Amino acid sequence: MQQASKSPATGLNVAPLKDDFGAQIFDVDLQTADDALLQKVVETFHAHGAIVLRNQTMEPDDLMRFIQAFGEPELHTQTKFCLPGYPHIFKISNMVDENGEPIGAHNDGLGWHTDYSYKEEPVMCTMLYAVTVPEEGGDTLLADQVAAYNDLPDDEKAVLDTLKIHHSLVHFIQNRDFNSYEITDELRRENPDVIHPLVRVHPADGRKALWVSTGTVKHILGMEDEEAMALIERLVAYTTQPKYVYQHKWQKGDLLMWDNRCTLHTGTRYDDVKYQRMAHRLWVKGERPIAVWDASEDARKAS
Ligand SMILES: [Fe+2]
Q1: The pLDDT of residue 14
Q2: Which domain holds residue 225?
Q3: Residue 1 has what pLDDT?
Q4: Region 30-59: what's the mean pLDDT?
Q5: Residue 282, CA atoms < 13 Å, CB-side half-sphere
Q6: Residue 215: band (very low, low, confident or very high) from pLDDT cuts 50, 70, 90
Q7: How close is the Cα of 154 to the center of ligand 1, in Å?
Q8: What is the mean predicted confidence (pLDDT) over 209-219?
Q9: Rounded mean pLDDT of 153-159?
């Protein structure tokens, strides 16, 4: 890991997770942190795209207080896996109850994606807190979509900047290998298909990110399906090369949080017969993705 140093902006001790991406924050106990300190953590998150804090002890009320420092918490699609009394805290687990029923979502996050890409207003950020961790595997990988976009040739950026992706939850459910969702009329009603830009502009500072995702992408507007899916596949392979990826190896008490506007993420498998896992996931509501053409229009109006 790179050397920790005091951030001139916040005074917090931080070290990059990878090159210019992400920050591990040291010497902060989130459970006892006051509001001013939490704001510095929020500031660090917005500047770096992802944060890690280790050795935390977070009860459900602590998680709720922490997430609310970032915005309004988002509810989850599969309410049956939420912590009783805490509809904003979702359990990711391979554990079962006394009747052998799963108590959390298992293997849900496998495959490069960004959370709630099938919603009009996808979640701004995702936070995971490790309660029980497998001794090996079950890593979380984050791909820095800003660095990947910046490295593209200008002529390719110009083409990608104009593209629109059709995302569909139903398409996602129908095409994956394993399933914990049931396609009901209610699910269809609550999750109509949406169109989002392929390149997303960050509202904080205008940085641009590739915003591709596997799974929910049904097609790209104006392109033949085969050509569109080949492009998505090529871009996901490009943007998830090791040079753009931070791999988080979990320890109990870790808190990892990433900005879905400028990252893709995936989980890795673990031996779910040998090991148990329990992580708590919380989301913060987001805004409609800003496209390059929206940003240009805003700049034109402002001038
Ligand atoms: Fe996810």
Answers
A1: 97
A2: 5-302
A3: 62
A4: 97
A5: 28
A6: confident
A7: 30
A8: 91
A9: 98
pLDDT at 45: 96
Q: What size, in residues, is the chain?
A: 303
Could you tell me the distance, in angstroms and rounded to a whole number, from the CA of residue 241 to the centre of ligand 1? 19
Are 209 and 161 a contacting pair, CB within 8 Å?
no
Domain count, the chain: 1
**Half-sphere exposure (Cβ direction) of 86: Cα atoms closer than 13 Å:** 18
Query: From the CA of 115, how far away is ligand 1's center (Å)?
Result: 5
Residue 276 binned pLDDT confidence (cut-offs 50, 70, 90): very high
| Ligand 1 geometric centre to CA of 155 (Å) | 31
Both tokens of 178, joined, read: 């394993």
- d(CA 117, ligand 1 centre) in Å: 10
236 alpha carbon to ligand 1 midpoint, in Å?
15
How far apart (Å, rounded) are the C-alpha atoms in residues 199 and 4?
32
Task: Provide the CATH number for the domain around residue 127.
Answer: 3.60.130.10
The CA 14 to ligand 1 mean position distance, Å, reads 25
